[in-house]
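user: can you give me the structure for this one chain? tokens are fine.
assistant: on it. calling the predictor now.
[tool input]
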Amino acid sequence: MLGKSVLRLLGRTGASRLSLLEDFAPRYYSSGSLSARDDARDARAYFTTPIFYVNAAPHIGHLYSALLADALSRHRRLRGPSTAATRFSTGTDEHGLKIQQAAATAGLAPTELCDRVSKHFQQLFQEAGISCTDFIRTTEARHRVAVQHFWGVLKSRGLLYKGVYEGWYCASDECFLPEAKVTRQLGPLGDSFPVSLESGHPVSWTKEENYIFRLSQFREPLQRWLRGNPQAITPEPFHHVVLQWLDEELPDLSVSRRSSHLHWGIPVPGDDSQTIYVWLDALVNYLTVIGYPNAEFKSWWPATSHIIGKDILKFHAIYWPAFLLGAGMSPPQRIYVHSHWTVCGQKMSKSLGNVVDPRTCLNRYTVDGFRYFLLRQGVPNWDCDYYDEKVVKLLNSELADALGGLLNRCTAKRINPSETYPAFCTTCFPSEPGLVGPSVRAQAEDYALVSSVATLPKQVADHYDNFQIYKALEAVSSCVRQTNGFVQRHAPWKLKWESPVDAPWLGTVLHVALECLRVFGTLLQPVTPSLADKLLSRLGVSASERNLGELYFLPRFYGHPCPFEGRRLGPETGLLFPRLDPSRTWLVKAHRT
């Protein structure tokens, strides 16, 4: 309840006089930053997507959220055995007035609608290679237990009281709105009606007795959390937006609805006349997955990274941390925020008929191809545009031609008849630039390539840590272009193995190019797992040699033995990524639920 919404308090208790900062989270705030965790806990990482509402079939925005979380968790696992303790959850949000209304419109029981649409999400994520360790549905019994326990904790701490709420409510967005966030829109007959200023969805004036959460008491703790943790919300502009919100009044929040109005949800413990607010219900899923309320959840919380869309930032960056602090817990470690996808410059909308069906795209562009496109083109800071020609152009250029062409060149029998990792010649490519001699063939640009690829894994890791996967892929693509330039510059197809002058340099050119390909394949695993597997298998890289901890680039250049030198390449796997036909592009729209 915000702005001019009216609260009449019916039962304030003495608990409202508790000192929020010390009583609710003294461990978190005693030093002004996240408290130190033991080594075992530091090794854990827990990634989450939002749980997706089941009122409509999934679109590419849902898949994008899941792919971001999938790539982050896969990259984390690649860091080695010490980071093997990684969890990744996604799922479906199945309660609330919107679901209740959608089911009634479809002539279905709410459970039937939820089962049907949740299955669509599960199928999509399975087809897209989403490597989640848990798919949660809020209709599960374990979740009901977690939500009702969490409610009980908030109540026992004096943070819930009964009051009368009177104000605007948006059923489509499942949220309360202040007067300043409501405008009027003209209908087809010229009459006006109130809508949410941000989403454009209709709102209605509501007055009812509900349970109220003392959100107003958490304004300063939330400000202190964010100011003391500048990376708590990434990218930075969203961190700034939340601090701006907190500069304004933070009224208490209604966290239940009358059961007679909203029956499809979790009942308030001990009061069947009330149903728990759908957002409080939904947010607790992040705890349900890690075993809450059992003690095991503490080994995973708060080593948590939420990946969310910008439209649900307020729920995750204000309401959720406030609920957690109220329950005596720390806020999540990171909140990664991304923007939305438009289609040919327009917002995706069922009414416009331009909602893109992700499953059709996976079939059209291949799973790895569409994963690569969304993560390569998606920039979290601002909305990104989708159209078919852009997908085809990118995939043909970067996967089929640049990366696939490089692999084909370096493994072709005409150039590499022994189908091995050739030897590296240190006299042809000495580790010290500028040396002159009859055998020295390396040029300044070649040393620049070695430097670029040697630093690439660290650069990519930094981009992942900063939630800039698109920049990680840009960096890989840039190095692929550099490597192609290296091969083109030295034209190994013009060199002869039979020549004692050419052979050492020919082997060195191929060795360097194959080493570059090994780095690219390893770094692409979180984004294009099947394509990367195909590439690394062709190079003869075993499963145990594919972690980032095993990624020692061009060791012979640095005077160390190379375990791949002289090793046979893996079996021929065909084209790494077949070119797509640009004449066969079309806009694929979503199937009906």
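assistant: here you go. The longest helix spans residues 388-411. The first strand starts at residue 6 and ends at 9.
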